[in-house]
């Protein structure tokens, strides 16, 4: 497997080169300059902490519902896990809440592109899981039944049918596959820009290069936040704080005495040179037993896989040995790609909870503190729907999906709900 360059700074460059029509990133240019100069209000209905997809979707939904919203991001929009995501959008999960969140988000991503005119490079070529263990076939068969009952078009496939969809794979050792034709992938940076645009249009204020350094709690209620910006501190009064700070959410929870059990887990991604085959015709393909995956990125591929040994640290350095591990996985499952050159790559962080399910809810101990984090690798694909849920939590309305089981309280009661379809 050829390697030309790799590094933590190449996320945007790799995607930009892969897509000649990629939109301007929200973290640069006029929009970013305006966000960095946004005046902070003395008071606002809601403060959203975190400028990734979950925070922006929440800000958009709350502003659209008529609430005054201030989103605060300590760096640039989407600069955390969102910009480093693979961009996959799926509804194939084992947990009903995750299925509903994924399916609803897919509708919103399609709406942003088809109805609102945002170029997300959304490709609905499906998600294909390759299975090599009988236990996985039996479990996925149950999941397919659940997904079908919820209106999804997921189906079990034969090995030959899987090969026809993803012709670069080796079928050795495979005994089945699962496919949903409506799943998709898109460009995370474009989705960030789209939601930022829609949030501002709805009336939300977005302040970058601004960090929440404290949350004032009085008599068990949120009362204000302290924002640090340009060496100055400003107090912003508010009744609601939404923690959407991704893998850094634990520090926000600690400000109000709420434990959010999230650990950082490093993941690598590589982007290849153009292929001789039509990469954009292939589905997002995942070898489930190894979590090796690939999907089209421009005329090439974006590929990923776990490290041989997990790194549970805030570490974004790329490890050259990971490329060797990736090469071994390619040789086994997609040997036709073994000679494809890697142009660039990066490392990002999953925000992992003990049961690989998100933390979504409102604190019982601190009224007005809400959280949406810990998505364990699924935050980008669930972000739009989670924004709707956060809106309803703040407004004390019933969300479209029951998220009571995703409250942080489950770790106190021991009532965990482990998501099984993780990559």
CATH architecture of one domain: 3-Layer(bba) Sandwich
CATH homologous superfamily designation of one domain:
FAD/NAD(P)-binding domain
Taking all Cα atoms into account, the compactness measure Rg is 21 Å
Strand adjacency order, main sheet = 5-6-4-14-15-16-13-17
Q: What is the H/E string?
A: HHEHEEHEHEHEEHEEEEEHEEEEHEEEHH
Helix tally equals 11
Uncertain regions: pLDDT < 50 for 5+ in a row? 3-9, 19-25
CATH class of one domain equals Alpha Beta
Mean pLDDT: 93
| CATH topology category name of one domain | FAD/NAD(P)-binding domain
Proportion in helices: 25-40%
Number of strands: 19
Overall geometry comes to globular
- Distance from N terminus to C terminus (CA atoms, Å) equals 23 Å
Strand residue percentage: 15-25%
* Helix/strand/pairing category: alpha/beta
Largest sheet: 8 strands, mixed
Keywords:
423 residues, alpha/beta, FAD/NAD(P)-binding domain, eight-stranded mixed beta sheet, 11 helices, 24% strand, disordered N terminus
Task: Give a description of the structure.
This protein has 423 residues and is an alpha/beta fold. It has a domain at 40-84 and 189-262 and 355-413: FAD/NAD(P)-binding domain. The chain is built from eleven helices and 19 strands. The chain has helices spanning 11-18, 29-37, 53-64, 96-114, 134-149, 159-165, 188-202, 249-255, 320-333, 379-394, 410-413, and strands at residues 46-49, 69-72, 88-89, 127-131, 155-157, 176-180, 184-185, 205-207, 211-218, 221-229, 232-237, 240-243, 263-272, 284-287, 292-297, 300-305, 342-352, 359-362, 369-373. It has an eight-stranded mixed sheet. Helix 3 (53-64) packs parallel to helix 7 and helix 3 runs parallel beside helix 10.
